[in-house]
Amino acid sequence: MLEAARTMTTTDSTPPEIAGRWRSQVILKRDIFSTVERGLFVTDKGEVEAVLRRIDCVPWWTAGIARHFLKREARALAIAGRHGIAPSLLFTGRRILVRSWIDGLPLHIARPTGDVRYFRSGKMALLRLHRAGVTHNDLAKEQNWLRTPDGRAMLTDFQLATRFSGRHRLYRIAAYEDLRHLLKHKRRYAPESLSPAERNVLARKSWPTLIWMATGKRVYYMVTRGLLNFTDREGGGPRLVNDAPAVAERLKNHPGVRDVAVVAFPDRRTGTGLYAFVESDAASDTVLIDFVASELGRTKAPERLQVVTALPRNAGGEIRTEILQLVAMNQVDLIDPLIASEAERKVVARIIAGRQNLRDRFAF
Prior knowledge:
Layout: H1 2-6, E1 22-30, E2 35-43, E3 46-54, H2 63-80, E4 89-92, E5 96-100, E6 105-106, H3 107-110, H4 116-131, E7 134-135, E8 145-147, E9 153-155, E10 162-163, H5 169-189, H6 196-203, H7 207-214, H8 216-227, H9 237-252, E11 257-267, E12 271-280, H10 285-296, E13 304-308, H11 321-328, H12 342-353
Parallel strand pairs: 12-13
Antiparallel strand pairs: 1-2, 2-3, 3-5, 4-5, 6-8, 7-10, 8-9, 11-12
Helix pairs in contact: 4-5, 5-6, 9-10
């Protein structure tokens, strides 16, 4: 199953439905259910930044599910996009969907520590979404929450969203779970600002969630992680979960290496690739790739390896993987708000200048 996913047809051509209207810039995500690209789309008002989700190249054994997800997202965005809390739906076809681009960072990269205003904005976004009769149903994932440059919360990835015709019991349960997941993120980044009422919500899972965790969730993991080998930790997939720790450990054993950070990036050939940033003054990238392959094999070795003289670190000395993730994905235009000092800016600038993942960056 995994090999089938890794040999999915590439997406170098533009879907016929939007030929002449779409120009790809970079792949944002690629898995067995869809490929997501960032680019420029021609609308009645001119060319705008946009995101294309396409399912024309998914494996045959996930095509039915992929079509179902695409329809759900289109229905939800047609409503949510009008309320300024989600991307706007620009175009929908049988196997594609184009939505507006949101200039924002995913929660796991933005890391809004202590930012009470952000979570207040998130609550308002959910209120507007739910008043419109839509529940998101996938907000446990930090990558589905965005933080805009002005600090507002916005939502993305509506593949599991539900559009309700009335505010019946099932709707209220789904809305409650959306809120509970927001509060879980608030507990991680701004725990001191949780109110007593919010703590009560966190302490009480809905009965469908309790049943799901006790039964269906186990089956879901058995199928997705066992049979399909599909995982989606921060959008990284099985390579980030299964291979990245072994790659990092192996590289750290090299005598010329001081430290290592391994992140995932969307890859046209394999679906998900690994990008290793190696802090060293002596070792070369080819030597280090061979060093990893000698123990783990070529298939486990990172698709990209960049030797750097210094890795970006926070005040506590931890590597700032959120910055390296954006470098690996060629989303370097989103890095500037994350820079904490002029010294860090110089470190990051050197890394950006030497970045190696240019294959999935499209030329205009």
